[in-house]
Amino acid sequence: MPALFKKPGWAFVSNHGHVMLWLLRHPDARIRDVAAAVGLTERAVQRIISELADHGVLEIQRAGRRNRYRINGGCHLSHPLEAPCTVSEVWGVWSGAAGE
Fold first, then answer.
1. CA 60 to CA 91: how far, in whole Å?
2. Burial profile 41-65: b = 16 or more Cβ within 10 angstroms, e = fewer
3. Contact 81, 55 (CB under 8 A)
4. What's the distance, CA 93 to chain centroid?
5. Which of 92, 94, 97 is nearest to 74 (CA)?
6. What phi and psi, each to the nearest 5 degrees, are found at residue 60?
7. Residue 28 and residue 62: Cα distance in Å, rounded?
8. What is the reported pLDDT for 12?
9. Cα distance between the two ends of the chain
10. Which of 6, 17, 74, 88 is least surrounded by Cβ atoms within 10 Å, i.e. has the fewest?
11. Against a cut of 0.85, is the pTM above it?
């Protein structure tokens, strides 16, 4: 974990959400950069990316030797309590875009 990153005792957003948010802001990021940014191992980030892609939340495009990630904003969240919401609706609220 980078020295500047201090992990709180709890988080409002899951590790999946942290990875999605980082990839939304940095679509060309390498797995090692995502891992460093969110405070997870590269293996954990790779597993999360695979799970998000398997569920249609994340699209992975090859760009030469790198990957480019695109979040599917129209995808509904998976938990029954969150299912009415799409990814875009949630990110819109967090980014301040909702209600504008």
1. 19
2. eeebbeebbeebeeeebbeeeeeee
3. no
4. 15
5. 92
6. -115, 125
7. 10
8. 74
9. 36
10. 6
11. no
- The three-state secondary structure class of 60 is strand
Q: Which pLDDT score, from 0 to 100, does residue 100 have?
A: 35
Cα(59)–Cα(98) distance, rounded to whole angstroms?
A: 24
DSSP per-residue letters across the chain:
--TT----S--SS-HHHHHHHHHHH-TT--HHHHHHHHT--HHHHHHHHHHHHHTTSEEEEEETTEEEEEE-TTPBPSSTTTTTSBHHHHHHHHHT-TT-
| Residue ranges of the chain whose pLDDT lies below 50 | 1, 3, 97-100
| Residue 66 CA to its chain's centroid (Å) | 17
The two three-digit tokens of residue 44, written as one number: 């954990």
